[in-house]
Fold these 2 entries.
Entry 1:
Amino acid sequence: MKIAVAKGDGIGPEIMEAVLNIFKANQIDLDYSFVDMGKWVFDKGFSNGMTPEAQATIEELGILFKGPMETPKGKGVKSVNVTARKTWNTYANKRVFQTLHGVDTVFSKAGIPIDITIVRENIEDTYGGIEHMLTHDVALSRRFITRPGSMQVIRYAFEMARKKGARRITCGHKANIMKLTDGLFLDCFYEVAKEYTDLKADDKIVDDLAMQLVVRPDQFDVVVMTNLQGDIISDLCAGLVGGLGFAPSANIGDHISIFEAVHGTAPDIAGKNIANPTALLLSGLAMLRHLGFRENAATIENALLYTLEQGVHTGDFGDRSKPSVNTTQFADAIIANFGKQPAQGAKPTLANEPETLAVCRLEQNAMMVSTEEGEEKIVGVDFFIESSEQPEAIAKRCLLHGGTKFKLLNISNRGTQVWPTGSKYTNLVNQYNLRFEGLADESLTQQDIIGLYVTLSADFKICSLELLNMWGGKKAYSLAQGQ
Ligand code: NAI
């Protein structure tokens, strides 16, 4: 069996070498095809951070084991990590956080065990990175939450929870505020839950979830979340079990899967051979199990747990009164402990059942469409315009433009209604939303909207527009605050 390996940037090559040495010492029957990805590939002029050969190899082999890769902050190139996850539709990001003996935390000292799996949607949300400056003062990010994308990851989470023997699965969300986006994700969660009556399915608003995770982490089992919220909450969970050095992650797709640590390139300690390789090793063990190398995975994991119990530690954790070891020495200690059983309970050594990776060749992109229901009708339009005038002045000019088809319903600024009613205490920015409604009962046409666009554009700079749809008698848009 052959997999693709990308060593990554910063501490990536050091921790990858340590992990592959452990695999080699355990005589795992795996071949590696090393691929070119990361910051240095950007620097060579490949704008997506990987060479075409790397992409072809990964698509052929179906498994990528990767070290962390650097993303320049702010303007410029996109994260190669996110590009890889999105390009290959690795829609479920599974992150496991467990108490480890030898890794002291406030919870381990208090005897509170932690075993939480976060399943984070991995493709959508603000990670689409679809952003525009609407005016010099106003940036807009488009946050896509889709029904097929949500169903895909939520189904994975339920299936995984059942296999894990979980008692509870929780959806973390902010549907009280983001009623359409997070509301859609939450609806999908309860739709899928109906098929898994053996699991206790419930939901928590993300801020409450964050607080409860810190106060009583042992009450949670599997938590499924949208992308950004899941990213933040999973780093919080990493903190509960001893930090980023112990947080593995698997990006699971139907055709290609990527295994990597949660942490980044740790530029502050790169090149010193002092990084903790545990998170990458745990990610590698998840990969081995995914590939059917169950016996090897258990032997290595038991050796790792035994090593941690012995108090062997790198500089980022453990008993500071005892000297720390470097990355290579840590890996060697694990190798020396093959065959040992940890006191905290050994992982069962099931026989290997290596999978034949049935990488399926795709001829075209898969289109995921859910069934549409009910009558569709365009009932209005939101025009986002640039203006530094007061709302009343804008309304006065707009009222001339509605013609016989439209009336100006309201004006909002940053989502808060400022006309026809509002408050003088609402601060304004130079970007308004003018909401026009159709006057007649029948659906508006796109030509009607273009007609209004043309007349309005004589008076205002239009930054963008959105149609106001009614689907099956329900509004497919949100109301302004105070509307
Ligand atoms: P980071 O995770 O690299 O570092 C945060 C802190 O944790 C640092 O103090 C670092 O020394 C420490 N740390 C991280 N991993 C460690 C390990 N294995 N052993 C010991 N200490 C460790 O996060 P940061 O500094 O925000 O990001 C650095 C770069 O990594 C950025 O370019 C970022 O975009 C990239 N990154 C890449 C990821 C990936 O490849 N999946 C994930 C997160 C960040």
Entry 2:
Amino acid sequence: MHHFDYRDGVLHGEGVSLEALAATVGTPCYVYSRATLVRHWQVMDAALAAVDHTICYSVKANSNLAVLQLLASLGSGFDIVSRGELERVIAAGGDPSRVVFSGVGKGDAEIEAALIAGIRCVNVESGDELAVIEGVARSLDLRAPIAIRVNPDVDARTHAYIATGLKTSKFGVDVDRAMALYRVAAASPHLEVVGVDTHIGSQLTDVEPLVEALDCVLALVDRLAAEGITLRHVDMGGGLGIPYRDEITAPPRAYGEALCSRLSARGLSLIVEPGRVIAGNAGLLLMRVLATKENGEKRFVIVDAGMNDNMRPTLYGAWQRIMPVRDPGDAPLAAVDVVGPVCETGDFFAKDRDLPPARRGDLLAMMSAGAYGFAMASTYNSRVRPAEVLVHGDAWALIRERESVSDLWRGEHLIDASWLAPGAADDPDDHGGHGGHGGGTRQR
Ligand code: LLP
């Protein structure tokens, strides 16, 4: 559910007219609803009430500081995958002791920063990583709380790019390797075994694969217990899907019941890392029509947002609803491609989509864009990344300024003028691509 509806013929985010917002903030612009974010988090919290649990919101879905600040104020923990995400959580007022650190490749310095910050658990992805964590913990003279990420070899039945629980994927370790790593960890004075972790994929519509994964994890918990290694928590990752179109997705209540019923008798606490289900339908991408045209049979609506602003349609062939900001009533529909300004044929938001007529200057909203929208935006084609706005009742706040053009080259440096003129050392036929070093003279 969300809080974007037509009022008096104009699409609103809560009580805020998106037409008025676009006039002030400009487009493209991401708009998030505070009420929707809060509701989604609270529904998840209530769904897990039967067991001791921590919601560690997956920062990668939407990492805007104000979104993190809002979720932290509800008591949320956070799932991070980088030093940058850790620092975002801290800057937003999040509690590091409610942070879990996931990710298949963590840098040594990132691990050190996380341990110094006092995070709740590092989710370990390999033997090499376990050794690094132990070394860092030893040098800091502390015990690092760890869980091993298990790959349960479960088919999450989702898009191949976002399925992570099959044994052919790079994520986690198989159960036997996990056993071996736990034995190593349990014997180390610098490692504290606190839990077990898994995450089988994203945009899951069904709870069944998650239950299968949980059963696999619980069998591992029992094997460990038989060896005297007891765990305090099970981290089931994220993955619960949302309806983008007409998918029937398992509601958080069913998800909660499935997990809690298996855990409540065991005295294990539960960690979950939801991202999309919290933020996805809490946001939209507001954009303006730049032009319309026909090429042969095809009709195109060209908008001022592109694949750099929301890459999900391009990357996954994802379907996201597109709504006119002015209620079209029962205007006739016609099939159009909604495309962006980026110089790639793959820069599309919708293909052969039945939409009411659109004209230059009209506003459109791409729905379900609160998760993995801005978070995956880039500046490709030297396009500035969009503004982000949070609406709350009749009020709104700019929570990220539109990037400025000079932001685009922050950190870039012009070279010394002496490198510009062709010199004696330059061989016009050499396109070997070695690059030069210093002072304009090539080093070979
Ligand atoms: N935990 C871990 C370890 C993860 O890798 C992820 C997502 C999550 C939690 C959160 O999953 P969620 O609840 O949001 O499904 N860019 C893709 C999704 C990539 C998901 C990556 N990992 C998309 O736009 O569909």
